[in-house]
Amino acid sequence: MDSQPGATPYSAPTGCPMRGERQTSLYGPEFASDPQRVYDEFRAHGLAAPIELAPGVEATLVVQHEAALRVLQNPSFFARDSRRWAALREGRVPLDSPVLPMMAYRPNCLFTDGTEHLRLRKAVTESLGRLNTTRLSRDVERIADYLIDQFIERGSADLLGDYAKLLPLLLFNQLFGCPGDIGDRLTRGMSAIFDGEDVLRANAELTECLMELVALKRRQPGDDITSWLIQHPAGLRDEELKDQLVMLMGAGIEPERNLIANALLLLLSDSAGGPQRRGTGMLVEDALDDVLWNNPPIANYATHYPVQDVDLGGVTLKADTPVLISFAAANSDPALTDARQTLSKGAHLAWGAGPHVCPAKSPAQLIALTAIEKILNTVPDLTLAVPASAVEWRPGPFHRALVSLPVRFSPSAARHAATAAQSPVSSRIAASEEVPAARYDHVEPQKKAKGWWSSFLDVFRV
């Protein structure tokens, strides 16, 4: 929040009311099962609270809406460059900590400040601005058709693992112009990082395959985000290119899959009227808005580092210590209860605020909307296989993510709906004149078992 003329937004610290308080763990199942209870307890004691993001990783979580804006909109007091992180510099954070991939410095626009941030962000936003929304929707539908075709005969599915988790991964491979082998490794590496599996090895594999992609696109540019970033006047170096791609995937895949899955849960739950009321009940757009307000896919993030000791409403934030924003807590701040009646739908903080506000808000919403409408229209009798109250939430400090989203449906009804819409993947794609072969002309035969991306490309090259 910009300071008012003559006002001093921050004062010198007068004490640390959090000193000596026990830090609350945000990575266990207890927090995942009911995070709102934890946010309410935090707010009862102040606008921020000490937390533990992982074993040995301490931080402060801002849970009040106005305070969140003060941090997000004041880069002169709060930097994003995690090289400032004192505990990491001093060796007090384990190098294999599962939160480091989300917090360690990379030369991308998420972890930079000032003119360097503006240079990198301009390259990203202008490259994203070249996306054609019609083509983007078509790409989402093709990938959705392919994924649905894998389970449409079963009569049951996990809409997270079988659909919402895979769709953004495959879509980013397509948007980046990945050939088969690189795309398979990229999918595998990103999945491992998000799931906290052998993070060091996964990060090394991710770096290797993205550097290969950058080298390939320098030699053979295409109509894709990787090539557009290379061609941008900012003149990004290979390392910078690689890390902008990491940022785009990290900021896009996990939030996107959670947005899709959380909205589907809402639409399929009794509170939304269930599938029998889709025509007259909650619209998909309203479900997405509800999730962004009340169950944001990235609940706690936007790590900042105070450039000096700062007193924020009576809470001392020590210089060079991680300060995270709880988008979920800020959105549910009781101080907004009355104001929410007059606020616009997009007034939530799920996309962030200030100079680091999400640059991909519009395409992210379009992807989620298209993916949800596709599955609901193709499988019209979807029902939850468990009560909505019985679904499990994946532990972790940053996200609000389901473990799974089990559903049941009639295979015959689903196949009939797909046929009526002329959408069976094998027949429709083979006849499509809209799939330019040049986009996939680097796919090579593979001797080993194919991954999701190679298999998808094989379908689209029939």
UniProtKB/TrEMBL annotation:
Stretch list, region Disordered: 1-30
What InterPro entries would the database entry show? Answer: Cyt_P450_B (IPR002397), Cyt_P450_sf (IPR036396)
Signal peptide residues on this chain, from the entry's feature table: none
* Gene Ontology molecular functions: heme binding; iron ion binding; monooxygenase activity; oxidoreductase activity, acting on paired donors, with incorporation or reduction of molecular oxygen
- What's the domain of life for this entry? Bacteria
Provide the family line: Belongs to the cytochrome P450 family.
Protein name per its UniProtKB record: Cytochrome
